[in-house]
């Protein structure tokens, strides 16, 4: 229920550094809180310690496993929507989720037709000045700005095998996207939605955009599906299709399933095909934070030492206040559970699959950089390009994605009341 979420986030915002777990509700006497964690004083601040059970779950996230899942996705090239390679990738993802015990899996089916693009009217000088200053989502752009766009030129992919794999073009028609759900033990009727998009574009392997977010969601499905992990509330792991065409897969989900929330079906079964949405958390481009482009348009070769996970909410959305509190709960989880990189909160979430949810439920995105001010200004030169390949990235890049996984595992584990009970089934 939203009320219980609101009560939780109030505690969270008041304590600033220490987010309390949801309290047992009088209306819901069955609601079981996660065990309170010990707090220690550091100077004038009280810092909540990691929950040992959730920390043990986070320790099951592993850099080599995360890399192997990204590598597995890149065998399907750019996984462009409406192609055989995209359908094969959906099948492969579903087989992986099943092997993790995240069952039963399910699919959303919808129809997609590419409408002819209406060319944008040419910009006058005032519009050009505005566009130079402001990115999408309301973000203020600063510093060197590099051109961005989608590569459509096959000859820019030098690898003949990959070029051949990426050659068949998208055909209008039926589309599918796959999900699986960890069903909550005390509140199966409420859930958090954890997503990334499995389709890509640009004549590469879509390793970072968004193999990195897809693998993150799959890795969380693996850890939460372990028989010794139980959660009070449900968690849905979903791999959107058709993000690159304009968030069409997540829009289809909202259109088909928003009205089904919280309905028990069949009646009296205790089963909720669409539990009530408590929050939506999207992961899109997780690995590359090499900083502001150099003045000559080149980039640093290495991950910048100050690299961080960017957690964004949308301050213009209907659920802005609750979404902001959700973002800070994630920042707090990052401090407790992420091993290498910190997290930063921003208010300009935009252009990803959390957007169709933002006026319906508190929604956030996790990324390598801010979408509007940084990715949109050219901070990721692989974005939609033939260079978005598994081999482009080093361990410091992959580790940033892993730290986002640790952050979401810690936050969603806390919010959903996860318990690690070794020996239980
Ligand atoms: Zn993306």
Question: What would you note in describing this structure?
Answer:
This protein is an alpha/beta fold and 425 residues long. The chain has a single domain (56-114, 121-420), classed as Zn peptidases (Aminopeptidase, 3-Layer(aba) Sandwich), CATH 3.40.630.10. It is 31% helix and 17% strand. It is built from ten helices and twelve strands. The protein has helices at residues 2-15, 52-58, 63-74, 84-99, 125-133, 160-165, 207-224, 248-257, 320-337, 395-415; strands spanning 39-42, 45-48, 106-112, 173-182, 187-197, 229-231, 233-240, 276-283, 309-312, 343-346, 363-367, 418-420. The strands form three sheets. An eight-stranded mixed sheet has the order 3-4-7-5-8-11-9-10, sandwiched between helices. A two-stranded antiparallel ribbon has the order 1-2. A hairpin with a 2-residue loop joins β1 and β2. Residues 1-36 have low confidence and may be disordered. The structure holds zinc ion. Zinc ion (ZN) binds next to α7.
**Looking across the biggest beta sheet, what order are the strands in?**
3-4-7-5-8-11-9-10
How many domains in all?
1
Small-molecule components bound: zinc ion
Proportion of residues in helical segments: 25-40%
Instruction: Tell me the number of strands.
Output: 12
What profile does the largest beta sheet have? 8 strands, mixed
**How does CATH name the architecture?**
3-Layer(aba) Sandwich
- Molecular shape: globular
pLDDT averaged residue by residue: 91
């Amino acid at each position: 229920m939203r009320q219980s979420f609101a009560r939780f986030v109030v505690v969270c915002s008041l304590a600033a550094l220490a987010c309390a777990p949801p309290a047992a509700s009088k209306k819901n006497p069955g609601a079981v809180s996660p065990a309170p964690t010990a707090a220690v004083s550091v100077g004038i601040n009280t810092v909540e310690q990691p929950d040992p059970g959730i920390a043990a779950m986070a320790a099951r996230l592993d850099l080599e496993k995360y890399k192997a899942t990204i590598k597995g996705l890149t065998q399907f090239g750019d996984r462009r929507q409406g192609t055989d390679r995209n359908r094969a990738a959906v099948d492969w993802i579903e087989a992986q989720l099943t092997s993790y015990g995240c069952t039963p899996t399910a699919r959303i089916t919808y129809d997609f037709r590419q409408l002819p693009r209406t060319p944008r009217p040419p910009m006058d000088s005032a519009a050009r000045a505005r566009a130079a200053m402001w990115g999408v989502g309301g973000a203020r752009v600063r510093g060197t700005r590099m051109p961005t766009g989608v590569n459509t030129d096959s000859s820019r992919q030098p690898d003949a095998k990959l070029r051949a794999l990426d050659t068949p073009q998208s055909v209008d028609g039926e589309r599918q996207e796959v999900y699986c759900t960890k069903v909550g033990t005390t509140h199966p009727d409420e859930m958090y939605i954890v997503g990334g998009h499995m389709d890509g574009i640009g004549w590469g392997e879509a390793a970072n955009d968004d193999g990195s977010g897809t693998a993150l969601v799959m890795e969380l499905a693996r850890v939460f599906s372990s028989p010794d992990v139980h959660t009070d509330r449900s968690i849905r792991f979903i791999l959107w299709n058709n993000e690159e065409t304009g968030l069409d897969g997540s829009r289809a989900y909202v259109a088909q399933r928003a009205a089904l929330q919280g309905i028990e079906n069949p009646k009296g079964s205790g089963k909720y095909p669409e539990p009530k949405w408590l929050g939506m958390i999207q992961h899109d481009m997780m690995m590359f934070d090499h900083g502001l482009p150099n003045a000559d348009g080149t980039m640093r070769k290495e991950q910048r030492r100050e690299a961080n996970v960017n957690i964004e909410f949308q301050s213009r959305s209907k659920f802005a206040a609750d979404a902001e509190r959700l973002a800070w709960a994630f920042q707090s989880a990052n401090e407790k559970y992420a091993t290498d990189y910190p997290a930063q909160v921003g208010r300009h979430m935009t252009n990803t699959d959390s957007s169709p949810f933002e006026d319906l439920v508190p929604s956030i995105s996790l990324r390598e950089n801010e979408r509007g001010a940084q990715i949109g200004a050219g901070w990721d030169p692989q974005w939609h390009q033939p260079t978005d390949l598994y081999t482009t990235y080093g361990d410091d890049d992959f580790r940033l994605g892993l730290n986002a996984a640790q952050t979401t595992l810690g936050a969603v584990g806390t919010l959903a009341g996860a318990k690690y009970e070794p020996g239980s089934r």
